[in-house]
What does this fold into?
Amino acid sequence: MTFQTLETWFMILSMWFIIGNPMNVILYGESGGQEVSADAAGSLEPNIVLALYMTSLVLMLPRLGQVLYRILKGNALIWLMIIMLLASTAWSDVPDITLRRGLIAFGAACYGTYFATCFPFQKQMQIMATVFFASTMTSLIFTILLPKYGIMSMPPHIGAWRGVYIHKQHLGTQMSLMSAFFLILWKSEFWREKKGLALLSIVVSIFLVLASKSSTGFISVILLATCIHIFQWRRFRPDILAFIMITVILVIGSIAIYLAENAAVIVGFLGKDLTLSGRDQLWSAILQMVNQRPWFGYGYEAFWYVTGQSSRPALIWNMIGWDAPHAHNGLLEILLALGWVGAGLFLTTFVINIWRSLQRIAINPSTTSFCSMIFLIYIVLTNITEKNFFGSNLTWILYVWIGFVPIVQTRIQPSPNYDIIHQLESNSQNPHKSSI
It folds into this structure.
C-alpha cells in the first residue's frame, strides 16, 4: 500500500468522522431531547477531531512551499480572517474559550487547506463522493437500527429524525447538500459507471431531509436542485457573467420582497409563526449589542459564555423570554465575534468566491464545475436562521476548500466524445478557423 493510498484513506475516514459520526448521540443523546449540548457531550470527540486536524497539518508540512504559494495566490484573506479570529483572544471576555475554540477553527482551516492543496481535484471529488455516500447511509442505517438514538423523542421535535447528528436541523441541512452533490454527479460524466449509486444517494438523502422535518433542509433541496438545472441550461460564457449576476440579484430581491409581503402565508405553510420562532426579537437585541462593540466584536465564541444576571447574554434572554444559545444567524454571529472588520473580511472573501465560481461555470463544460457555487448557496441558506460557519464542521471546511478550487479544472476527464463535439462546435461558430 503506497503512501498516497494511506493519505486517501486517512482523508476518507477522518472526513466521515468530522462531518457526522454517532459517538456523541450514543454517549449522551438517548433521551432524544432538543439536542446534545457540547458541554454535556464532553471532550472526547473534540479531542479526536483536533488530533485529526493536527495530523493533516503534519502531513502538509513536507509540501509547505506549495501550500503557502496556493494560499497567497487565492486564499490569503480567509487566512487573515483566521489570524484575526485567534487574535480576538486579546479582547475576549472569556479568553480561554476563545483560544480553545479558535484553535479548533484553525485546525479545521488547516484540514480544508490540506485537502484542497495536497490532492488533485479529481481525487477530491472521489473522496467527497465516498464520504458523502457513507454519511448518508450511516444516518439511515443508524436510525433504523437504533431509533431511540436517531429519532428525537422530546418536545418540540417529537418524531423528527436526527440520524447521527445532535439535532434534526443538522441532519436536514447536511442531507440537502449531499442530495445536491449527488445530483451533480448523476448528471456528470465523473461517476458514469456508478450512476446507480448516485441515484440511490439522492433518494436516501431526500428521504432523510423529509424525515428530519427541517424546513431549512426542505427549502434547500428545492433551491439547490433548481440552481443545478439553471446552470445546465447552457454553457455560460464570460461575456454574459455580468448579466447573470444582475439577474441573480434581481431575482433574489424580488423573492425577498414577495416573502416580506406574504410572510403570514409562507410561514403558515411551513408550520412556523411570524416571529420565526422568536428570532426577530433575538436579532434586534443582538444588533444593539453589536453597536456597543462595532469594530472588533466580543471575541470568537465569547459573547454567549459570559455569565451573571447582569451579563449581556442575560439581558438578551430577559428581553426575548428564552435562552438563545447563539445568534441563530451566521452573519450576526460573525458580527458578535469579530465586529464589522471581521464581517467585512468575510463578505469580501464571499464575493471573491462567488465571482470565481461563476467564472468556473463559464469556462468549464463539466457539471462538476457547479460544486463550488452550489456549496456557496448552501452556506447562505443554512446560515439564515442557524449558525454553522466557523468551527469544526463541514461548512467551514468546504468554505476554505472553495477558495482553492482552480477556475480551470484540468484534472476532471470529460466524456470521450467531448473533444470532438467541442471542436465541431468551435468550427461551426468560426468556419474560417482551421481544424486540428
